[in-house]
Amino acid sequence: MNKHTTEKLTEVLMTIDGSEGLHNYIERLDDESSIGSFQEYFNSLPQVKNISRADLIKRTNIDRSYGYQILRGTRSPGRDKVILLCIAAGIGLHETQRALRTAGEQILYSRNRRDAILMFVLNEGLNITDTQELLQQFSERVLE
Known about the structure:
- This protein is mainly α.
- The protein has 2 domains: about 1-35, no CATH class; about 35-135.
- Helices cover about 70% and strands about 0% of the residues.
- It is built from 10 helices and no strands.
- It has helices spanning about 5-15, 20-35, 40-45, 45-50, 55-60, 65-70, 80-90, 95-100, 115-125, 130-135.
- It is globular.
- The model has no long low-confidence stretch (mean pLDDT about 85).
């Protein structure tokens, strides 16, 4: 956990009022620590269950064998691959942030230009093509 995250957690803890607030905070920490692997979490999402693996991989333009390895859990996806898979599955921002955490990647940060665009995309439910075009429009690196 980086220093910035630790400071934020400390701030949150200092604002908790009463044992019920602390209980809720600890419960949330327990939920987040029991997420499991990226593959387990991602494949458990209802949006993912409603799409064939072949269609999901085709939407992302990820190499087919690499995509299957990610979905089986034999390969770990990088940050862009996680985001691509989430966009292709029509997953929202909250679930994408959680997917990034389970993959051990940095969550999207609203003060980063590229991340802000991706957060917008996830909130609006845009597809991969529209996402790549929007990133290019703002001179940001496309998802790879």
